[in-house]
Amino acid sequence: MKWEPTEDDEEHLPAPISGPEPVVAQAQNMSKLLQEVGEENDRRIAGMTEEERMAERDDLLQKFGGGVGEMLRLRRLKREGKAANRNGHPGHVDIQSPIPRTLRIAPLGVNKGNAMGIDTAVSMLPDDSPKSADAMEPPKTPVSRAELLEDLNRPRSAMRGSTAHSDTSSTIRRLRFADVTPSDIHVYPSQPTSPRAVHMLLAPPDDGAADGIPVTQLKFRSLRPETIHKRGDGPAVWLAQEQPSELSSSMDASMDMDALEEGTPEDIRHRFFPNEDAAQLGLEWITAPSATEQSSDAPRFDLQGMPIPRSLQTTLPTHLGLHHTSSSLAGYTLDDLLYLSRSTNAAQRATVLGVLAKIILRIRQGHISSDMLGPESRERILKSGIAALGEKGSVGARAVEVVWEAVVGGDESYMLQEGVELWGEEKRKVSSESQDDEPPSLIPGLDAISSIPLEEVLPLIQSYFTVPPSFPAVTLSQLLGILHRLTSHYEAHASAIIKAPHFLASILSAWLAYKPSDFPGESAQDPKLLQLLSVVAASSRSNGEALAVDVPNTLLRFIAQMPQTSQSVEERELRESLMAETLHFYATLGRYGLGCKVALIAQELMSLLVKYIAKTLSEGDITPSFARLAEAFFEVREIWTTCAIDPHKTSPPHELIWSQIEAFGWVDDLLQIAVHVPAEQDTVWAGLWSATAAYAEGAIINGVNKGQDERKKVLEGLRELTQDGNGRVAIDSALEDLQNCLDMYDGIGKPKYLESLGDVARSARLLGAAIRLSSSLITSATSTSDPLGLPGASISRLMDNLLNTTILHDALDITAPPGAYVHLRPLTTLLMNELKLSHRLGTMSMESWSTRALRILRHLLPGDEAYAHWIFQTFVAGAKDLADSMDIAIDDSIINQRCLEDVLPFYMHAIRPDHKYSVASFTSDPQSLPLWTRITLPSLAALHKPRTSTLKAPVGLPLKHDYLFQPLSDLLRSATTTAFESFPVSWNASETEVTRATLFGAEMYQTLLLETHPLEALRREEIVFGCMRVVMLEHGQPQGDSSEDVFRDAVVSGQMKRLLEPFLISPSSPALASYNISSTQEPSLEAAAKDYLGSGVPFYQFYTDLLALYEAISFADPVFSALLLPPLSMPYPPDYRQLFWGENSVAPRMVRTEVGGVPAEGLGEFLWPVEGSTEMLGRYVRALVDGTVGGFLRVVARHHVACSIWLSPAPVASDNPTPATHASPNTRSTPPEGGETRRRHLLLALLRSGKKQVVADILTYQPEVLCEGAPMTGREERLAWVRSWGGQDVVSRLDASLS
């Protein structure tokens, strides 16, 4: 790099003097200086070993290339020749100088801004300039500048193009740049170009003096010789640059350099690339922007990742580093950046990767719209970063930054949704396999993060963790964050990490070996690795078992490193964080019953930790890291206590037993800490209550006399705290906070939605833990008072308010954040703990308690299977008492034949359909420890997948809205369902008994909820489809006697009638009611049947089978007949009506259901809009004339025929074939056909039939339900219309029919 004296440097230079003496003195000083430097170098070389010399030699060759020796030799000879001239021999230089007489180069020191170390200030001088080298002997073989630079060649940069590889000829000069990093080049804010721009790379300012100054206001030293300030009268020192004679003569003849405008492309080429042809492709980047080139639609970015306005893309100067593409526009498109990210030049590649990281950051911050770059932009950038993983130096670090921004960033949904998978589906482009140029199609697939090939990425990540470290702490921390995000997102990623050979072991070993001196100012051990271990273990039992072998003992060192008061705040917080994450990892393993032996090994260390927690709480110095440590301590105490309750459930068994718990005095530790907990530490109180409750529950099983003494001890130790102390204040505050959160809750999609859910969950967790503790301390079976004196009435009202809000529904909506429903786990736990406490104390009536239990049941989540099982068992045990209290008749056969017990296994299978997939509960349960296969909740997308999807999570909770009919579904699919595999061997119930119990449960459910909470009760379509499944039980069964049909059973028939009764068309409705065609319809039978039928079987096929079964075995059963009618309403497709009224169908002649016996919202949905199919109208006319229909069917047929005749057809628009008076956006019926001609033919057909009564009914018909926009005419208007086209003869025939 060349040096240019500044004003500060000039102060230390000797004053200029005239005459030849200064030249001699300067030469002597320079000679002396060179001699001293040479001697110093000789001494250093002499003191070096042979290995050190070779290492220095290799380093120089790597930095300066293979021609560095020849270059230094020539420079030395040149320097010696100048010294000889100064000593009185101006006419001869004893070297073959390559410097021509026709060129001069700017003196040394001018090019301070050239960070590349290349002599770029070349200028042509006139031939009549002083020739100080006339006596030089011309070289035999001239050495050109290009040839000299050829020796210093390094790998070519990818800067020449952005969308395709450059086809530049190999003769293009390849420049060798300095080995700089992206931070060594400073890019000033973009400004419009100046008339005479100075094109140069700018070094970053040494201080902050130039920050914020526009580039056009900065003062630069000119690169032209005439502007150089000489020191005194001394001669300017010029270096000559060789120029071939033919080029020199051509240039001399063609132009004068002074005539070129500075900054123009030709000026740049002649000053920087004098030996190159202007037509070379490699010099396209200096070409002036075309006047016709316009800004493209694709956004262009600067080096800070900010979009460049289109108005500036053609005006920004080239020295800003924004023109290294094939386009003359300033900035880089995303395609340009993705192409340049594969550059072979490390510095360039690192810079571009940094730009891509900034673009993702700005997209996330909202400064750039994601629509601007396209929906796949993030995935494309992510792939670019993954492709650079594993590279050394700044490229590898920038690649990690890109991947971190794309995968982790500041993702709110990730940071606030721990404990649930976050994967979802995206529409992904798939290219067509055909030879035609078809556009790619969009198919659903896993999102970009889930699709990362982790098996290929893990070895690259592993290469970053070396000892000693080769990357900074921030890069390694980002890598751990990436791994944590990937394992939290998709369970398959966690399994891939476990299966990768030596991956975790290698990273953990390197992580433990890092010393504070390796990362000055940074922590050597980042707690993110411990968090990663916990997430991997929580993803599956098999992963936990793999980690439980050696890792727990390895991490004991962090329990032993107790924080000290003498340490700095940062050191204490780091130790607390490491200790907290270690305890959380132990608790995660403990949920599977693994790693309990650590509790014995670390007992002494845990005793010290108890003292530290109590001391810190008493002093009030509670930091977030300490609060997290206290929570983790109580969490692991709760889990280990649960494991000790039943040591047979741990793996291996008997690693921790109850007697050891008592001997260690764990409950004393809890009571000791409880005295010092401040009231505002709600999370600490929640953990304390849960750990204490686990001990009390264990004492009931393992203690003498059901642990009366142990529970009494706990109650006495907490009585003061829960009555008047901080414990009661914390409970009251949580109760108030939760109520306030519910009052302010404004639904999904609002700002801070996840934060508000987190606040609700935090308060609910404390209340749920306090209620659980109170339940465990009840010592008498007949007790009716709360042991802790909790405000039961206030809590009960709060539970009702919670169930009345939509908060429990919203988080499970498909539009909710992917893992928001994890915050509902404390809510369902609170609801169930309160339900159990009120049931035990008897504080609610049986009817009220049952209503709340049924409402809670539908909100239970994966992991709450034990709660759902308890509710079903409680209902079965108290069904008769509940029915008696509600005056509901229950058949003796249901009680005497234990039908309710027989149906219970069906519901247990519905709750847990796959025992190989079992999510751990929110609170510890000793009986379920060996059953849990995972702790992490499945993704919300997995819950919404259809039953036949391979991505469907095999969980039963939350229950479907019509879960009560699940036994009927299993009976119909008895050949394929797995339900019977889990049934007891002694189970032998009949279909009729199962159906009776199922319908009784549905009847009780409707009685409890239909009046008070109608939205939570079973809907009309669900009841109708449930009854359809009852009558279909005969379909495919071996019974030959129709008397054995299930729907003929008197009990079953009566139950179906009672279930359908609330949904029948009311006979008390006004005769002339109004029906709005565009009114919102309730969910149709097609939607209600979708879960049972799956995506492969349409409901139409099911209805076809139902109709055939009706004609074969029903004998016009009234209930069966009523079930056929709902699909005949006009909102359904016309296929159903054509099937029912078909020529070969006998169902219309069998059905005699009256209007009041049809399960529908109203009669209007069957009447409007008027049928438009001529074929269907013909069938209606035939049925009326033949007299084969009656009741409801006759009303429908007469209405459509009469309205088709007397309602004039409206004009049909070209884009809407349905008349305006009959149109409906929700109608799928066939549009009218025939118009005026069809009206006449219908009336004439009736007249020719000779059925006077039918004709009279049609002539005088007035609809029972009117429709808006369809006015009916009177008798006189109708006769006038007939007379207008049929004459008096047709009118007379009508009069005869009326008479």
TrEMBL record:
UniProt organism field: Dacryopinax primogenitus (strain DJM 731) (Brown rot fungus)
Q: Record's family?
A: Belongs to the RPAP1 family.
Q: Which residues form the RPAP1/MINIYO-like TPR repeats domain?
A: 1099-1203
Q: Which GO BP terms sit in this record? A: transcription by RNA polymerase II
- Carries keyword Transcription? yes
Which protein is depicted?
RNA polymerase II-associated protein 1 C-terminal domain-containing protein
Task: Write out the ranges of the annotated region (Disordered).
Answer: 1-22, 1214-1237
**Domain RPAP1 C-terminal, residue spans:** 300-363
Q: Which residues form the RPAP1 N-terminal domain?
A: 35-80
Q: Keywords assigned by UniProt?
A: Nucleus, Transcription
What main location does UniProt list? nucleus
**Compositional bias (Acidic residues) spans?**
1-11
Report the leader peptide range. Answer: none
Q: Does the keyword Transferase apply?
A: no
Instruction: List localization entries.
Output: Nucleus
Q: Where is the composition biased (Polar residues)?
A: 1215-1230
Q: Name one Pfam family in it.
A: TPR_RPAP1
